[in-house]
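User: LPS-assembly protein LptD. Structure?
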Amino acid sequence: MLQCLNLEKTENCYKCLVNSIEIKNISLNLLPQPRLFSLFEYIIRPHSDEYNTTTFRNEFRCLLILYMSFYVNFPANLLNQLFRLGFFLFNMFGIPCFLIRPLVSVLLISSAFSLVAAEKTAEKVCFAPETPQQRKAESEGDSSQLALDITRQSVVIEANSMKMAQDGSASFHGQVNLTYGDSQISANTATTDRDKNKIIARGGIQFDSDVVEVTSRNVEADMTLKSLEFVESNYRFKQTPGHGSAKSLKVSDTDQGVTLSEATYTSCPPSDEPEWQLRSSEIFLSAETERGEAWHSRVEVLGVPVLYLPYVSFPLSEKRASGFLMPEIGSSSQNGADILIPYYWNLAPNYDATTELRMMTNRGLMLNNEARYMGSQGTGMVTFHWLNNDKSFNGDARNAMQLMYNGQAWDDWQAYLNINNFSDDSFVSDFGFLSYNRVDTHIESVLSLYQQQKDWSVEINVRQFEVFGDHLKPYRALPEVKFEYFPELAWPHVSARLPAELVYFDTNEEQRGSALRVHTEPTMRWHKYEPAWELSAETSVLATAYYQERLQENKHDTITRVLPRVRLNGQLFLEKPISWFGKPMTQTLEPRVQYLWVPQHDQDDIRFYDSTLLQDDFHGLFRVNRYSGVDRILEANQLTIGATSRLINDRNQEKLEFSIGQILFFNEPKGNIVDENEELARGESAVAMDLSADIRNTWFLHYGLQYDTQLEQTKKSQLTIDYRRDDGHFVQLSHRYAPNISNNKINMAGALGQWTIDQNWQVFASYYHDLTLSRNLESRLGFQYQSCCWGIQFSWQSSLLSELEADSLAQDEFSDEYDRGFMLRFTAGFGGNSRSNQQSLLQDGTFGYRRPYFLNQ
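Assistant: Predicted structure:
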């Protein structure tokens, strides 16, 4: 309602003076540094050269909108668009500005007198439009998510009512909403000063932006300092789980972050008593670095103070940042008290490092370091562990190193590098190293260069094996060059390949001599495939030459060997629909036959360089050679028969697979072939069988068997039964049996499992027993408490120590000494998710958990 209105004439102008105005249903637009055209204030300036078209356009638009909005209640937004069209027409017809301006002034003044008698409702209060510089600043956007940028955004105030005083200040009442950009503040009341540089809102404050939500009692916005300050507030971040309360919360564009005084912070779900929280005199949350800093803090667990920290830095998200990681605390009879403190170095976006200090009371201080690199050409990693003085190892220095690279070397050449070095054979069993198992008997180092083209490939390797224990060291390949040519032939269903290799084998063992081997294997193959069957015929010529050092003599022998090989292979694919316990299934029957012929050749003069006998499972029955290398090529006149049957449900998921097969030999051996005379003389191999079953997606069974039907004895067997409800509920039972593995009998049973009790608690256990010697091999028992923001894992374990320094493999691989101890691990999530992979609880130790695998699962 208009309370006072006076019209005063001054020099060359008319001014309408208003003492106080109250307008209902106001929507006020505060533009950056506005030049206010008051509701009834307009100065009629004389025409001059300085009064240009742009100035006229801005003032004319404002006046016209004011007049039409108040006098005829016309929508202001529509008028704004009509003005742009009108101004264009004025320019087209050349109507001079000085003629239009007085007319508009008369209309405005007359409308003001009319408003005295008739109360009108305002839709819009118009202020000076933005300058091009302001529009440019607004288009540049905000550089900080948490920061408030008031100068680049117009502030829109909406309220049920507004009072404007003579000094230019204004007050707003009833459902007050302040909007700038994507942020919004709701309040009961709000006031602005005369310069419109400060806005104070009170009562029921609700602040909402893309990043944070704040509830508060009062808030003050300073448009000059570009800041918001909340009093007695609660806050919650939208992009991270962090939240808390503060006596004072200040959002500043200058600081690009949030400053909290007398505040708390936690990443736990909102509750009256969070599982942990940080209570500090001051906390600064940076939007630029996505990290928080706190001063004079205490860590509270379930409301109980447990630790004072004069300063702490913590992440607000999962973005990498330098800092200490959670420690690990353990104890064992071998190492004593064992404490691991890691520190992470975030050096650059494409490389980082982790340094660990490991303190063992029985051994000493170990320094571990791992550096990783990722570039446009490839990735690399360097790992180094160093113990200067091992008190349990005669005071010797012990170390381990690994250098890895995988990527491009140059042009079309790719490179793979994996170099390992250990100071002694028992380093891995004593301390562990990367992903190697404590009972690993050898580790390979390799440098490889390779190139793949359309019809040929080449690979150059330098390879070395390091065997732990007092055993003969294997040969080194210095180098190994492999080439393969596979041209496209014009004949249908016919393919050809020409592989060739050259290897120089070197050794430091006096019982062994070095050698140069050249091997090629040109092959022609015909292959026909149809939906119900496939048939192939293959012929090869295996040509090998050795330049072999004669033992204890400074002489070399040249040995050549040329053998033809013929292979015929056929398979049928039959299927029919069946009903399996009332469910529709498809059953397949896939019989397979293979004939293999290789003539006999005396190979006693050729030493074993890189060849070893392979294990025979069902799929191994159809190999062309039962050795891994070409130092031994077995004579063959044999027929392999086998069959596979599957059950597949209506979702094309394989629920059961059963395979069985055997090799039938037509000729007795004429040469001395290692480990093969016995079964060749009998005319048949052991029966190989594989069974896998998936029962209701919960129970899984896998059974592998190699059984000698004539001797009626099992050569090898492995059984695994899994109950798996989900990733947090599973139990696995297993049994392994082999009567002769490197002159040792393996007869072992084991059980492991993990069970989630509720949302936070899990228990896990494992136990493996040697049935032959009736002793425990390894056992573990533990629990884990894991919330959304922190966790603790405790485990007790006992494992039989391995004797890597045994004189020969014929001796028992295990001693009677056990290593017993516990392990305590912590996890914490200040800003990200701290939940670790639950299956990792059972990955440590000698016998890790292996999830049952099925195709299409």
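The mean pLDDT is 79. The first strand starts at residue 5 and ends at 10.
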